[in-house]
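Section 5.1 Outputs to date
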Amino acid sequence: MKELLQFCIETYRDSYGKYFWFHKVDWEEYKRQQGAKKCLETKKEKYEIYEASYGTATTFAGRALKFKEVRLQEDNQKSTC
């Protein structure tokens, strides 16, 4: 019986992918989680770019950046997620 069940699972998995058993609610939750993960990755990438540009601007200026200069960089790096 277990062999038949495993065979059926493998057949469906080959035909419909590894999430073939998901219901509509499961798919919505899965897609929400994937969206959140992608948004987090995007925020991390933007933060890394911000850090690099802040360091470059500080080095170029030869001093710590002023408040207005920091705000300008932060406004340019706002995330849409």
